[in-house]
Structure formats: structure tokens, C-alpha cells
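Supplementary Methods, section 5.1.

A reviewer requested that the exact input to the structure prediction be made available. We therefore reproduce it here, unchanged from the version used in the analyses.
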Amino acid sequence: MEGKQSKFRPIQIPIPFGQLSGKWYGSSDVRPLLFIHGYCDNSGTFDRLIPLLPPHGSYLAIDLPGHGLSSNLPDGIVYHATDTIIVILRIMQAYNWTKVSLVGHSLGAMMCYMFIGIYPELVDLFVAIDAFQPYFPGKMLEHLAHHIERTLASDMANRRNELPKVYTHQEMLEKIHHGLASTIPKEICHHLLARNIAASKHRPEKYFFRQDSRTKFPNVLGWSMETNAQAARNITCPVLIIKATDSIHYSDPDECKQLIELMKKKPSSHVTFVTVKGCHYVHLIEPERVANVITHFLNSCKYSRETVESKLITPKKKSQSNNERQSQTIRQKVHIVKVEKKD
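The structure derived from this sequence is encoded cell-by-cell as follows.
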């Protein structure tokens, strides 16, 4: 399925340990909606959704560190949910944005919620697809111990220069087809597979998963209900929560209802909860269902028109001095730490 936005520009954003990679759809002169993928996915998860969104909009889907074509974290580092908060800030700095508009799927939605709770003044729109708030799992200590031990095992394998497991392309396709959350039709698995495999140099016609194995065991959760409630009170931007009917709840459904009520208490609140028929990957499998809901939401809060008219990017000029860049940041009142980029 293709729409008017089916073409994209591959992008790379320099970061201290390498680069972030992604796909930019639409005009580069317009600040885009920033799409954050879920657990062990990559930007390809939005391949069939973004082309169905309003054609005059702009959309950027990224691979988080350790996923897709983005760089891995340095050896010896544990992946955390808060890594994504830093990633979003780095993207804002790279493009000189004073605000960001977020769309997250699954774990990506939870991490966006965390970002908005911490920096509500930097977010002007949030769409959460089949997840919302982070949760505090049972047996928290055992949960953390398991993830830490698996991360250490991955580090040891890297130090021994162990070769990754290799598979035929068909075997890799089957692994994506029978995913952890839901079954994905084989004919569209390539959207997730394309950015996550590489050909083996040692085994002809074999492939390995390029994803950092440590991303399977991140320290991702642990926000308490009190912290989630505080975040909900902080949120002032329009919010759309999409729940797939045939998917499990990835956080406490009763708590989610309570958080929605907290957000709705604000006089100018614009909070919408919608259910769509489908599984956890409904945005990839039957994207028109999700696209219709998002498009209606964007129109209802007049976001699409405002995106084109008043949310233009102000590119950084290479000729600017450090002082000029710092002054520009102060004038724009971006309350984040400035990180200098190498030309």
C-alpha cells in the first residue's frame, strides 16, 4: 500500500557515539512529526502508516540507538528508557527545534510519555499507538537482575569477538512473522527486516541480525503510579491514545483511564482515546485504520494547517560561531543543554 508520501529521504544525525539514522517524508522545510518505534523494532514499522497521513505534512521516523541503521551504544553500557529522552533532545538540537511533536508505538509511546512528563513545555502534540504510560512491573528486583545479567553476557560475547548467529533469509522472515507481540503477515515483514539484517562475510547466503543484542534487555520500566500521575498533570499538549482491540494492555488499563481523567481536567485539554480493530501491529498490518484516526485528530486540533504555516525549521548555519549559536538558543528559549556538532 502506497500513498502520496511513499518516498522518503534517508537521514543521518551525528551523535557522540556515531549516528542516528531515519527516514524523512515530506518537506524538509517543515518541522515533522517525530515517530518513535517500539521494542526491538525500527523505523520500518511506520513504512505503511506514514504514506497515508496528510500529504502536506512532514514526518520523520528514526531508528533508536542499537536498532536499524543507527549506531550502538558503547560497549559496557546498559540501555535505559531514558536514553530515548536524550535522543529526542539531540534531534531537537540538531535541527534547532524549539518544540517537538511525538508519535510513539508500544514501548516508544511509553518513552514519549516519559519525555513529555519531564519536558511538557517542549511538546506540542502526542500520539500514542497501543501503549501509553510506563508501568511498574511485579517482582521489580528480579526483573532488573535478569536484564543486568543478560546485558553482561552480551558484553562478554562482544569482548570474545563471538560471531553472531546466522540464518537464511527465510529463517529470518519466519522470526519476524512469528513476533513476540503478534503475527505479522509474511508479505509485509520486509518493512521490519530490511533495516535489521546484514549479510554474513563468513557464511555465503546467510544473514545476521544487526540489532544490538543488549536492546533486548533494557532497563526500561519502573515509573510508579505517582510519577505517571505527576506526568499527566504536567501534560498540556493535545493527546491521542489509540488502543488495538486484539492486543493486550501493556500497562494498567485502569491507571490509563485515571491518567486520561487527570489530563482532561485542564480547561484547554484536547485528549482523545480511540480503539481500532486489529492487533499490536495494526499500524503496519492495516495502516489505514490508524491513519484515519490520526488524520482526524490532526485536523481536529488544526495541527496540519499550523504545521505548514508556522512550524518551519530554522536551520543552523555552518558559518555561525559558538557564541552566535548559544545566543540563538537563548533567544528561542529552548531549555535544553547545547551540544556542539562537528561540521
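The beta strands are 8-15, 18-25, 33-36, 59-63, 100-105, 123-129, 197-199, 207-209, 239-244, 271-276. These observations are discussed further in the main text.
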